[in-house]
Amino acid sequence: MTSKSGSGAAEDGSYEYEEESVQNARGMKLFTCRWLPPKGQIVKAHVFLCHGYAVECSVTMRGTGVRLAQAGYAVYGVDFEGHGRSEGLQGYVPSFDVLVADTDAFFAAVVASTANTDLPRFLLGESMGGAVALLLHRMRPSYWTGAVLVAPMCKIADEMRPHPVVVSVLKLMTNIIPTWKIVPTTDVIDAAYRMQEKRDEIRNNPHCYQGKPRLKTAYELLRVSLNLENNVLPKVTCTTTTNYLLFFFHGRYSLRSQI
Q: Which domain of life is it from (predicted)?
């Protein structure tokens, strides 16, 4: 089930913007948005946005959506459960697997509803969204044409890697107080964004979560990061006859992988 909540276009007519709510398999409303080239312009490809932890798509990733739409790409985003304008306890990720399944279902529905389902399909994920993009590719290896991962959450620095005992204790506590905001951490916004302008934008955005990580959320992010590092990244492949392009952007260093 979907419901339109808003639409518009740039004053110069260089792109169109739409918002709507969709319902996931659990009956929750998820906020979605899209930036499209002007009507009548040929669409080059579909680009699907996966936002980072605690933020959302319509404001935080607006610049990316606008620039890509102006360049001829159809861009689609969805606020994950507990993020942005979607339903769910703010900042709470009860299951990363379910979050990925929600995203996969929405992206697949978008492609199925378009006039040309054979257009190239790209994923663009930032931080936690980079992990989502990697797992989406793993679910449908032949479905995606390529991906751009910006500072993806796919490896834990050695100096920050928790002891296995700590991980076990954390898992036990999530069964008792999963939503408690008791995980000690540095300011997430300062850690994730270097530009002060971007930090201020997020802090002034009422749809962004700014509290401490909830216990179950922290465990899910840790679990997924370890799984990606140990089990997924070494096996990322593409089963299509064309090459799959994977771009990593992280700090001063970038990596382009063609597989």
A: Eukaryota
pLDDT digits (tens, 9 = 90+) for 122-163: 999 999 999 999 999 989 989 999 999 988 888 776 666 777
| SS3 track for the chain | CEEEEEEEECCCCCCEEEEEEEECCCCCEEEEEEEECCCCCCCCCEEEEECCCCCCCCCCCHHHHHHHHHCCCEEEEECCCCCCCCCCCCCCCCCHHHHHHHHHHHHHHHHHHCCCCCCCEEEEEECHHHHHHHHHHHHCCCCCCEEEEECCCCCCCHHHCCCHHHHHHHHHHHCCCCCCCCCCCCCHHHHHCCCHHHHHHHHCCCCCCCCCCCHHHHHHHHHHHHHHHHHHHHHCCCCCCCCCEEEEEECCEEEEEEC
